[in-house]
Known about the structure:
The protein is an alpha/beta fold. It has helices at about 5, 55-65, 75-85, 105-115, 125-135, 150-160, 165-180, 185-190, 195-205, 210-215, 220-235, 240-250, 255-260; strands at about 20, 25, 30-35, 40, 45-50, 70-75, 90-95, 115-120, 140-145. It contains 13 helices and 9 strands.
Amino acid sequence: xxxxxxxxxxxxxxxxxxxxxxxxxxxxxxxxxxxxxxxxxxxxxxxxxxxxxxxxxxxxxxxxxxxxxxxxxxxxxxxxxxxxxxxxxxxxxxxxxxxxxxxxxxxxxxxxxxxxxxxxxxxxxxxxxxxxxxxxxxxxxxxxxxxxxxxxxxxxxxxxxxxxxxxxxxxxxxxxxxxxxxxxxxxxxxxxxxxxxxxxxxxxxxxxxxxxxxxxxxxxxxxxxxxxxxxxxxxxxxxxxxxxxxxxxxxxxxxxxxxxxx
Length: 262
């Protein structure tokens, strides 16, 4: 579809997004408490970084109305980094061609300065580009031809800790790994992980949060965090989302930890 038609102000109503616990003093359940112990509930925050005002406006209207997100905007890499520091968004949807230096550069700099999860998207992704974005630190990659509700679902999943990657783009990543003769290297890097670290990574790649991993493997959340840190160091990857995508694309599918336990 054309950019204007798909990402102009959307013309249909959708379901409301889930609210989530916002920032404040942490409580024992992992939520946040405000003054007097009242729970502070806020909407997930998304930074939309795209050079085209019509794209930003269309995505903003869609996510605010149908997705239940709070949305800010950026038109350049510099604006993205400034907005990320100022607003501390949960997610950043980054156009691959964001000026002046491109989405991969933006994601790499964002990963160094922030814990914001970056999702890159493009109208014309190539295998090499998808792999480069993930290596730069992207938590996911989407095609700009995605439907409106598909985008809402993908970002809701990302807000829950999932790594959105459409099936055709996952295939592109595998193709890129094959094309560069990197699959053997990827397996070698995964082989550096201990059995427990690989079990943790399998669960993380499936979208599990730390508390879920801890419950499945009967270990503490602190131990899970330590394993994740070791995994990122051994794989030379900047974020857990990047590690999840790397594992899903680079490792031959075998019965997962979840399937074995189930």
